[in-house]
Amino acid sequence: MEYQLLAKTYSDLESTASMLAKKDILSIFLKNTPKQILKRISYLVTGQVFPSWSQKELNMAHGLAIQAISRVTGATREEITEVLKKEGDLGSVTAILLESRKQSTLFSEKLSFEKVYTSFEKISNSEGRGSVEKKISILSDLLSNASPIEAKYLVRTVLGQLRIGAGHGTIRDAIAQAFGVSKPLVEKAISVLNDLGEVSELATKGESALVDIKLVPSRPLKVMLYPKAETVGEALEKTGEISQAEYKYDGFRTQIHKLGKKVIIFTRRLEDVTHQFPDVVDAVLTSVKVNEAIYDSETVGVDKHGFIPFQKISQRIRRKYDIKKISKEIPVETHLFDILYLDGKNLIDEPLSTRLKLLEKSFTPSKNLKIVDHMQGNAKELEIFYQEALDKGAEGLMIKSLESSYKPGQRVGFGYKLKPKAESLDLIVVGAEWGEGKRANWLSSYILAARNANTNELQEMGRMATGMTEIQLEELTQELKKLVIKDGKIVKIKPKIVMEVAYQEIQKSTKYASGFALRFPRLIRVRDDRGVDDIDTVSRIKFLYQNQFKRPDNQ
Ligand code: AMP
Questions:
Q1: Structure confidence at residue 554 (pLDDT)
Q2: pTM tops 0.70
């Protein structure tokens, strides 16, 4: 197949806002796609190159794409950046630059889908020494044989920003329509297999091929998510009078697959972190009695006083060397809270009560592999349990319906999370950075500072780039432009604008002058009513930091 057919479909999808029209376009395209490439086409139409469970990535940085575009179009980096400011995405920039050179370009050959896909695979396989040059030259080669519209989508695909507005629901419905099978069956198959290509292929064989699909140990599936409830009572109204309550630890989600003697650990983003956690692998091999299983769990850092904040174990997730050493320095515990597959049987459609029984039977708890701290009870009992969880350094409580199944990748309300409300902070903007892509015309990331009451200095405590609406970004940019003291991509701002900021956690930081940074800062509102003298002091932030987990040792 020629790549231009796919590019034309992308363009048709992009140019209509109607979801129904998008679904129709996609379904016709899938129906007419030759069988031998249907799998790969199914990934590409959603902007993926590999199945969702795969660890493969293109890893093509913005800068590398710019170099390739520069080579092929002859435009300098500065010229490309200039057009990018107006256009908002590098794909469109490439198309424009190629268009303006049309006369001088001679396409040597028509770009085939096969060549494009093989090139993507080559980009993904380029690692280590010389890989930067290799990636640039593979993309340059593709672009030099591409028409402007093909180039636009090639660049967007390698950058992982397809921007055609066809999401999960559209592709699901398009597969169902193209091959005459039911939407719920397609939905279910996608959630179990986590592989759009495989689902499309199965759908061509009719509904019978989509019934009874099994989870595949070693292939991660999307984790179930939980909406937030404000109170125990509100959660119980939805999950039932007697529900399962569990500590909500401040660790990271671990989906653990056991296949005989092999253990694989995935994060919430389905990243394979087995190498970083040999201690968890050992704990699983020692304690788990069954041959094959998929567990859902939270892995949390501990010290001699109890749980430690996420920030510390996040170092372990990133660490690629000296693994044994850091395992000893920052030990972890894994708390299992669900089982999704057991010795050839899918359990995701079983009620939680059944899954919990099977979970308990499947392993012998040890110091590092435990069942989550839990209880089942009524509102009054759960209130006490919630307080106890917070006192012990947990982040909150999960309340789950005992009758519910497990819906991968969805926030369906089969369980709720409860967390105490975080305090907000009033901080002042002392700097800002010009955005990229869609945000290119806005100062869209703000450097925030608190006041040191002893020295009266403004001390930085990190950046915030979320919580602003487009209107706010526009207004803030106009406001901030008047206050610029020093120009550049990152500008220095005269301290005048106070922002009320929500956050998930205060962390210690050596990077910022205040000694603190915020995890997940988000704008609540601009405090027009406040000035530099009203903002929070570093000593209040220190106080909040020390008390945020209600543990005396948390400095
Ligand atoms: P949040 O990240 O605030 O949306 O909360 C959901 C996350 O809490 C999950 O993705 C898990 O990583 C984590 N978590 C901690 N303890 C539990 C538990 N007992 N059950 C489910 N999720 C938990």
A1: 29
A2: yes
